[in-house]
Hints:
Layout: H1 2-79, H2 84-111, H3 113-119, H4 127-139, H5 141-156, H6 160-182, H7 188-207, H8 209-212, H9 227-261, H10 264-300, H11 304-331, H12 333-339, H13 346-359, H14 363-378, H15 382-395, H16 397-439
Helix pairs in contact: 1-2, 1-4, 1-5, 1-6, 1-7, 1-9, 1-10, 1-11, 2-4, 2-5, 3-4, 4-7, 5-6, 5-7, 6-7, 9-10, 9-14, 9-15, 9-16, 10-11, 10-13, 10-14, 11-14, 12-13, 13-16, 14-15, 14-16, 15-16
Amino acid sequence: xxxxxxxxxxxxxxxYSSLNVLGMMGLSCYILADTFFxxxxxxxxxxxxxxxxIPAYSLMHGLGLMVGVGGxxxxxxxxxxxDNEKTDYVFSQSMIFVLMLSLPxxxxxxxxxxxxxxxxxxxxxxxxxxxxYIKIIMMFAPVFMMNSVLMSFVRNDGNPRLAMTAMLVxxxxxxxxxxxxxxxxxxxxxxxxxxxxxxxxxGMLVLSLxxxxxxxxxxxxxxxxxxxxxxxxxxxxxxTLVSQLASGVTIALFNNVVLHLSDNTGLAAYGIIAxxxxxxxxxxxxxxxxxxxxxxxxxxxxDQRGVTKTYHYAIATAISLAIIIYITVFVFAQPIxxxxxxxxxxxxxxxxxxGIRIYFTAFFFVGINVITAIFFSSVDKPKxxxxxxxxxGYAFIIxxxxxxxxxxxxxxxxxxxxxxxxxTMIISITFYIKNKKKxxxxxxxx
Length: 446
């Protein structure tokens, strides 16, 4: 009976995680496609400008995911009680909340993109192109953020295949439009930004099939905004937000440190590393987001075996993938860098190749941390999730980067991520073991 149940759990894990990994990789290609076409169309300065703008995108994307993951987690737990009024209410509140959060981004894009570029660290050489990218991306914040919420709810409503399709179709449209806008139409940075901004609209059109086919377990209802519900949604999704912000904080921190140690070529090299890492991170985020509906559903049904086994499968998968990914990027580091090296800069190749081989050691630990943070959010324990995300995003990365860069220069910058993730992993595992001991008092899971 136990083996049969375990096979059922693994089958569900494989379905949700594989589909979500594919979808998240597609979603991450929004930025990677920009990186490729900007590198080919605008060269080193274009890459540097894009990398300066990414933290703004990370903040916007993080808030959208916070509402999406938080609202969808509460939806999955409530769904077990089959109370449609409550599930419809949570979805409606999530949509209202995310639209409210998107308004400041829209206004910044409309009126203050130049100031935002300055705050993010753009120098005179790349200020204009950075400002253009920020303006367009921020003005499309409502559709980016609504897309994140819809994606999370559709996935938690038992339709991970459609969620994956929406992410992949949106990503493919971004790639096609990037090429058209940057090369034939010669729109430069504005074209790359527009291609990225149109993609979530395409994604939402695909997601609308969930409602058209009447498969949806939730619908929007007319309701007044409730701060208490937003607070609950924010708490459950805070770990995801902090994790996304961590990416933005790391990029902003590294931008400043790298510029201090090198120049725009060094910043362009980091831009290549950061964007490839963004795609690899999406693999682990895909596993984590894939297990969230399963764990939340199991938790809501008091199925402790389902919760524990799903977590164990996710960790084993993350470690296996980390080994494969590191071997791949180590062996093919130079060909990967050359794809983005329009100017044929030998200096760029030297910095980026060495950087990739050091930086990517962090991914032996990243998956464990991301999955454990999502695990705690999924079982309605947001505090450990927030703590794990905060440690890797702020408490460790800032002092470790400053210390390591002062001692070992650029090598110290690349190594600081691995050290941060390793320290966080120790604490993540400690949190999980303590939580498991509490659960063992009433459920025994081998």
